Amino acid sequence: MPTPPPPVILTENAASRLKALIAADGADDLAFRVSVSGGGCSGFNYNFDLSKEEEPGDISSQQHGIKVLVDSMSLLYVLGAHIDYVEELGGASFQVKNPNAQSSCGCGSSFSV
Question: How far lies 101's CA from each of 24, 62, 75, in Å?
């Protein structure tokens, strides 16, 4: 039986940046947690965190050497999203391309469905 695709897709750029952040933290067992909360100028906010623990209900995937966790409540909002790390003249950030978002704010950290 084929392996299902991960709930969110992490680019190699994002994974490289996460590896650097994890190395700077000094713990190599951290996972990248993606979640969604209410708020922001468009209705929902993306939240990114480094986590030691997998919570009950988390969906886990391994991508480019990074363990990615998505909680079951956030899954509905981020399923199929691509997370990239982009460095531009004005700064660097993780950016989300979410097929479920009908609109997003200018900064890209909040969205609506």
Answer: 33, 24, 13
Token pair listed for 55: 């919570």
The token duo for 75 is 């899954």
The string of pLDDT tens digits covering residues 46-66 is 899 999 999 999 999 999 999
Q: What angle do CA 40, 69, 111 make, to 5 degrees?
A: 20
pLDDT reported for residue 104:
61
- Name which of 59, 52, 54 is nearest 30 in CA terms: 52
